[in-house]
Amino acid sequence: MTPIKALLLVLIFLALNQNLSQASSREEWKDQDKDGFKETHLFLDGKGKLLQKTKDTNADGKPDEYSSYPQGSRNFVLKELDRNFDGKIDKRSLSQWDPNKGISIWDGKRIIKTPVPGYSPIWKEGDNDFDGIIDTYHEKKQKNETVAPLKNKVGQAIDIRPMTVSAQDGVEKTAKEAGPQTSQEQERIDQLNQKMGLKS
Questions:
Q1: What global pTM score does this model have?
Q2: Distance (Å, rounded) from C-alpha 148 to C-alpha 192?
Q3: What is the DSSP string of 6-23?
Q4: Counting beta carbons within 10 angstroms of the beta carbon of residue 141, is it exposed (0 to 12), middle (13 to 18) or buried (19 or more)?
Q5: Helix (H) or strand (E) holding 187
Q6: Angle CA(144)–CA(150)–CA(154) in degrees, nearest 5?
Q7: Do 190 and 68 meet the contact criterion of CB atoms below 8 Å apart?
């Protein structure tokens, strides 16, 4: 078999495998608090990786909490909350898994750091008075970072729509749907995406 034929077969296999994995994508409903109401909705890709989890916290039939996992990886999580149950997102954060995260505790003689792996926030934004305008914004400065965080997000409109996922199509929200951004914001987003290994 020539190298070209072998390469062609590999490409055909990968294309078929991708189509099969998309075809077997699924959604699941769970009753996590065992009250008889299935409040948690999971969107999984064809390989069983979690893409998004939504939760209805007040049993009104509409999700209030969204957790999205870009590219089906649990290294990053985008959390979106509707805290006043009006169907609009008013708090959003992007966090990264940190196996070295820890807490400082006093052992009676000195302060020691105890490892507690978990998610560490990269950035957070919030609309605390529910008027559609960002009131708080915080971005964690990365080590050796030369670009200043986007402090000018305070006072801008918050995107009230959650990132939506369908088990068949994966992440549906695009930058175009998220609304216009200044060139400085887009440049910062592109830099963070590149640094985090995410698609721009």
A1: 0.67
A2: 12
A3: HHHHHHHHHHHHHHHHHH
A4: exposed
A5: helix 183-196
A6: 145
A7: no
